[in-house]
Write a sequence for this structure.
């Protein structure tokens, strides 16, 4: 079973990565992550928003209300300077973890 | 058509946040659910089925309530501003003031100098001031490092570096001119001379010294981050 720390880490990395390409509101963010990971990562409302609020508190993202083309108010999230700074070491950590796991599983299969 | 905002408000009844913040959360979650439901309807689902599927995203509203409260309040204990600006700034201020006091207490005492008019006491200002000035780059570097560690923006890092000279700046730029304006007994020609000397000795020179160390540290820290970024990509 994947621990909550690992789950939270991957989820944060996913959010920071999609926001790197431009501001998005919560629903669009969840859809984009699902599409880009071909359904491997899915965010429900209950999982997404507490995480977005936590990341906002840490100063990694900033939310602001905007009016969409359809005239509806939506809260769009943007990556802050601190978020951009956080993204690269986070990517490195995860890439190292996955390489280590790949090496480990190759060894155990051999 | 279902009133999503009323539904979310009902479900998050116990959400203990400030009224404005609470209203924002409710509006945001309602917008998310509405959009999800509309998407399912576009895919051909009946309204009843679409609402049921949309609401299945939240198994336990009470639990969601607690998670939102925790996310919005727990990490407020040490806010980012404290980590990124106030803590490094106050530490650099404390260190620079403390160091100056230590040099004054334990540094060289005034000495007697023979002059034509007789013996006189000379206070070794330069002996106290110069070591302090030379120690400031280290303090500035520490401010930059701490603010950087707290993931501070460029502005927060800069503020943390120069913070120790801000009290002097306020004194020389605000307090001293005000004194000159309101106190008639002060000799204004002497006052302005003192103002510029003070401004240079206690603001510009220490500020430059702090910045020399701080910006150098910031340069190396950002280079280290860049190299990590390259290695990570």
């Amino acid at each position: 079973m994947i621990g909550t720390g690992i789950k939270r880490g991957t989820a944060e990395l996913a959010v920071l990565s999609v926001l790197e390409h431009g501001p998005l509101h919560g629903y669009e963010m969840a859809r984009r992550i699902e599409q880009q990971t071909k359904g491997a990562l899915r965010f429900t409302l209950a999982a997404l928003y507490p995480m977005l609020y936590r990341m906002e508190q840490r100063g990694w993202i900033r939310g602001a209300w905007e009016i969409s083309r359809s005239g509806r108010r939506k809260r769009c999230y943007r990556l802050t300077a601190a978020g951009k700074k956080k993204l690269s070491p986070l990517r490195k950590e995860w890439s190292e973890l996955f390489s280590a796991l790949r090496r480990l599983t190759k060894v155990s299969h051999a | 058509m279902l009133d999503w905002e009323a539904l979310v408000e009902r479900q998050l009844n116990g959400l203990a946040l400030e009224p404005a913040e609470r209203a924002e959360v409710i509006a945001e979650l309602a917008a998310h659910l509405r959009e999800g439901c509309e998407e399912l309807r576009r895919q051909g689902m009946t309204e009843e089925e679409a609402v049921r599927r949309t609401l299945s995203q939240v198994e336990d509203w009470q639990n969601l309530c607690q998670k939102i409260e925790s996310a919005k309040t727990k990490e407020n204990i040490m806010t980012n501003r404290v980590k990124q600006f106030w803590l490094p700034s106050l530490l650099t201020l404390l260190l620079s003031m403390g160091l100056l006091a230590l040099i004054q207490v334990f540094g060289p005492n005034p000495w007697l100098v023979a002059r034509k008019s007789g013996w006189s006491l000379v206070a070794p200002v330069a002996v106290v001031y110069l070591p302090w000035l030379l120690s400031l780059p280290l303090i500035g570097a520490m401010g930059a490092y701490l603010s950087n560690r707290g993931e501070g923006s460029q502005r927060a890092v800069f503020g943390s570096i120069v913070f120790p000279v801000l009290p002097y700046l306020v004194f020389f730029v605000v307090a001293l001119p005000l004194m000159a304006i309101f106190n008639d007994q002060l000799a204004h020609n002497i006052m302005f001379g003192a103002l510029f000397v003070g401004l240079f000795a206690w603001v510009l020179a220490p500020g430059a010294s702090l910045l020399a160390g701080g910006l150098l540290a910031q340069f190396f820290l950002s280079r280290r981050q860049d190299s990590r970024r390259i290695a990570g990509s």
